[in-house]
Specification:
By secondary structure, the protein is an alpha/beta fold. The protein is 53% helix and 13% strand. Its main location: membrane.
Length: 508
């Protein structure tokens, strides 16, 4: 889930305050366990934690060693163990096993569990069932929002979509409400709140309850309007191929917590490099929203400008050279390093996208979105599957076809499903079941097509032509939820123009 604020807003709220609040609370919780201690961190909390408090900061507050939670016997020799985890039953059960193993060996230690962003009753109930509720202390680290850039903050809850939309687990709804309450408490009241979707409504109600229960403070409003949008309101957008630089970097290298790890092919060395992608990276900031076809031209011009800046050194006297070295050289070297990385990333992406017939893929997606040449699109998807180009991409195209056409014709669904399982393995039967439950990949139900019309057409024309006309009649018979949604979401393009910030909360 990510909140994003308009980039063209006159002045952005200082979201770094959220980072300071989270760091101060974590330090306070760690100091409640006085003395040297080892800290065990759940894997998906390590990157967010590094953005809040690095290793040096933690060691300044009596953290001796750091370990990643790996759900196996521990090797720590410390007498005090602190666990920073998500409220997951599997992880809590592992902690219970650690404590009970120590008790079996007659070893006494002090244990503290810090749940982030909140603890659930099910976790405490498991501690009680395992007989260690009195042996551990528990607390909450209310780390709801992580600033990723000047205008982007994120909850960093990757399991939200699966838990809520697939499994019907509503436990994270209050977390979303608490995130809104944090924004409201720090940056003042919102002018208006708009929402689409059941989950958005529940998150709004949770936030309102917390506002009414809490202490009211008079603050100047820094955020004007808030839009709450359920992810399942628009499932089409994340299924479409990215065509801007930042999106392609995420597709190929995966951006995690605002960072990307460039492989040796990009860095032209024997090791990978982690790079922070935000507006502080001047090169990235200028190309992040550019169409990929324009990126190479910009990078070439940037390289020429950088060379010109370096060439200024010739002809300088000693005083000018000293000024150049102290004021400009460091920045130029940093920019040169980043430029080299982004050129390497662009070349790597170009090679991969050329191999995958990227233009043909974009053409197919465009046809699906516009509702044209559907039979040709299905043929392309079948070829994509049979060539085993990319399992994820093939599944993405199937879901896009289903969503834009309000489901697949039964014969197409059965055929495409069989081909997919033959190409990528029978183990993906569960995937089809999950996608069907989510409404991402479904069959059209009986009565949604003009079966009588189809049968009459079949008597008049040959099979090939009948197939095309059948698809056309089917499209006319269905009400397109996707295209109706597009018209509704166009309303968001209206410029609010009230001089305040606009925050979007989208469930990812």
């Amino acid at each position: 889930m990510a909140h994003s604020v308009r980039r063209d807003a006159p002045e952005l709220p200082d979201f770094s305050l959220l980072k300071r609040l989270a760091r101060d609370q974590l330090i306070y919780l760690l100091e409640q366990l006085p003395g040297r201690k080892d800290l065990f961190i759940e894997a998906d909390l390590m990157s967010p934690l590094d953005r809040i408090a690095n290793v040096t900061t933690l060691k300044q507050h009596d953290v001796d060693k750091l370990y990643k939670v790996e759900h196996k016997p521990i090797v720590s020799t410390s007498d005090q163990l602190c666990f920073l985890i998500r409220p997951r039953i599997k992880t809590v059960k592992w902690i219970c096993d650690v404590v009970n193993a120590d008790k079996a060996f007659g070893r006494f230690r002090r244990y503290k569990i810090i749940f982030s962003p909140q603890k659930f009753y099910a976790c405490e109930n498991l501690l009680e069932e395992q007989g260690i509720f009195g042996d551990v202390t528990t607390d909450e680290w209310s780390f709801y929002l992580l600033p990723l850039d000047d205008d982007i903050i994120s909850l960093e809850l990757p399991e939200f979509f699966r838990d809520y939309f697939l499994e019907g687990d509503q436990r994270w709804v209050r977390t979303a409400g608490s995130a809104l309450h944090l924004l409201h408490s720090v940056y003042g009241p919102f002018s208006k709140v708009y929402g689409i979707g059941r989950c958005s409504k529940m998150a709004y109600e949770s936030w309102r309850e917390q506002v009414e229960e809490g202490e009211q403070r008079a603050l100047q409003a820094e955020i004007g309007n808030v839009f709450l949008i359920d992810r399942d309101v628009d499932l089409v957008t994340p299924l479409c191929s990215q065509v801007v630089y930042e999106g392609l970097v995420d597709d190929i290298f995966r951006i995690k917590c605002g960072c990307v790890e460039f492989c040796p092919d990009v860095t032209s060395s024997d090791k990978s490099i982690k790079v922070m992608l935000n507006s502080q990276d001047k090169v990235f900031n200028e190309i992040r929203n550019e169409h990929f076809s324009q990126v190479f031209g910009f990078l070439s011009q940037k390289a020429r400008n950088l060379q010109t800046a370096y060439d200024k050194r010739s002809g300088m006297d000693i005083k000018q050279m000293k000024t150049f070295v102290s004021e400009e050289l460091k920045g130029l070297k940093q920019e040169h390093r980043l430029l080299s990385l982004h050129i390497g990333a662009s070349e790597s992406m170009m090679k991969k996208k050329t191999k995958q017939d990227f233009q043909e893929l974009l053409k197919t997606e465009h046809s699906l979105l516009e509702g044209f040449e559907i039979r040709e699109c299905i043929s392309y998807i079948e070829e994509h599957i049979n060539r085993q180009v990319s399992m994820v991409e093939s599944m993405r195209l199937l879901c896009l076809l289903s969503l834009t056409e309000n489901g697949l014709l039964p014969k197409d669904y059965r055929s495409l499903k069989a081909q997919f399982l033959q190409s990528y393995g029978i183990e993906h039967l569960l995937t089809f079941s999950n996608l069907k439950q989510l409404g991402l990949l479904v069959e059209q139900q009986p009565g949604e097509t003009l079966t009588v019309m189809e049968s009459r057409v079949g008597k008049l024309v040959n099979d090939k032509t009948a197939g095309k006309l059948t698809d056309a009649f089917s499209s006319l018979a269905k009400k397109s939820n996707f295209r109706a949604l597009g018209r509704r979401l166009n309303l968001f393009r209206t410029r609010l123009g009230n001089g305040q910030e606009t925050v979007f909360l989208v469930q990812d």
